[in-house]
Design a protein that fits this description.
Number of strands: 16
Shape: globular
Helix content: 25-40%
Oligomer: single chain
Strand order of the largest sheet: 3-2-1-4-5-9-14
Structural class: alpha/beta
Length: 349
């Protein structure tokens, strides 16, 4: 039996579908949290057992772990949120929830493997090099620069221009918002647990995931869902900054497949892995492709120059370690995926 926490959610439900299709017995533990679910989703796989409950409740978790040989921990509060007033909710759902799960696993001397949904947000800004100083880590962008439309980070030594490049898994972690801090803590908790128990832990750092079953535009949605929600309402997507922010957009089916590999690989594979397409795309280009695929009379994206202090400029991934060690390669074509996404109904919340 494989337990998928958060298995009723956007990514978790796709993992459940692939596991069921491969013949694995699956149990879902999901609280159907109100910001993500207004009601029980109609796409839940009927072949999976659903336990409706909170991963922060030790009695619920203990019961859900009965007979389980592998755990896929997707349950989390996601996105940048509204403001720092969200801090207690993020820490409770993400860090306390993970701690309760780990305690329950340790109490039953769990002999299996644990796969954790992590995120590219743990890196903060991506990787940069300066022509004169080599690889550098830029400081958080100043409010005055953002307000003046100076969006590119600068070399902290000389103030010169920087070139972004693909970030690798052993890069320093630099969380720059509350959600990012909780994902770093989840990783640290899980790997501390692994060292004390010898349980195999695999942390998958998702990059910008998109695809069917994304929730509609909420403060906790990803940028792809925000743009798709605007287009569905006949409103032009509003692209922040100058639209030049580079990201790696990876289809949810690819993300689900990476999880299934980590859950079933023989022998087990421990460590952290970027889950990404390996092809950086600007946020502005993603918005344009999504509008193109939505067809006429979809409005064209608008570059607003607006900004959010928790955002970073460029972060995209090297997929090499995931390919060489985990055996994962993203297969979904970006434009075809965006075409499918433009036609897929967003999940009501």
């Amino acid at each position: 039996m494989i337990l998928v926490t958060g298995g009723a959610g956007f990514i978790g439900s796709h993992i459940v579908d692939e596991l069921v299709a491969a013949g694995h017995p699956v149990r879902v533990l999901d609280s159907l949290l109100a910001p993500a679910h207004a009601r029980r989703p109609d796409y839940l796989n009927p072949a999976a057992e659903l336990v409706e409950g909170d991963v922060r409740d030790p009695s619920v978790v203990a019961a859900a772990l009965h007979g389980v040989e592998a755990v896929c921990h997707q349950a989390a509060m996601v996105g940048l949120g509204l403001d720092v007033l969200d801090v207690e909710d993020y820490v409770s759902h993400n860090d306390l929830g993970t701690a309760v799960l780990l305690k329950s696993l340790a109490a039953r001397r769990f002999p299996g493997r644990l796969v954790l949904a992590s995120s590219m947000v743990v890196y903060g800004e991506g990787a940069y090099r300066c022509a004169g100083h080599g690889r550098v880590t830029p400081a958080p962008r100043a409010t005055a620069d953002l307000a003046a439309g100076r969006f590119e980070p600068r070399c902290p030594s000389c103030g010169g221009q920087l070139e972004p490049f693909a970030i690798v898994e052993d890069s320093p972690l630099d969380p720059r918002n509350v959600y990012a801090a909780t994902k770093v803590h989840q990783e640290h908790l899980c790997f501390a647990f692994a060292r004390e128990t010898d349980v195999t832990v695999t942390a998958l750092r998702y990059h910008n995931v998109y695809g069917p079953r994304m929730p509609r535009d909420t403060p906790y949605s990803g940028v792809a869902a925000i743009f798709a929600s605007a287009l569905a309402a006949g409103v032009a997507p509003r692209v922040f900054e100058d639209g030049g922010q580079l990201r790696d957009f990876v289809h949810v089916r690819d993300v689900a497949h990476a999880n299934v590999i980590a859950l079933t690989a023989d022998p087990t594979v421990a460590g952290v892995f970027n889950v990404a397409s390996g092809t950086p795309t600007s946020v502005g280009e993603m918005a344009r492709v999504l509008a193109d695929e939505a067809g006429a009379p979809a409005p064209r994206p608008v570059i607003t120059g607006e900004y959010r202090l928790g955002d970073v400029r460029h972060v995209f991934a090297s997929p090499d370690r995931a390919r060489e060690v985990l055996g994962f390669v993203a297969a979904e074509d970006f434009r075809a995926g965006m075409a499918e996404f433009s036609r897929a109904p967003l999940r009501a919340v």
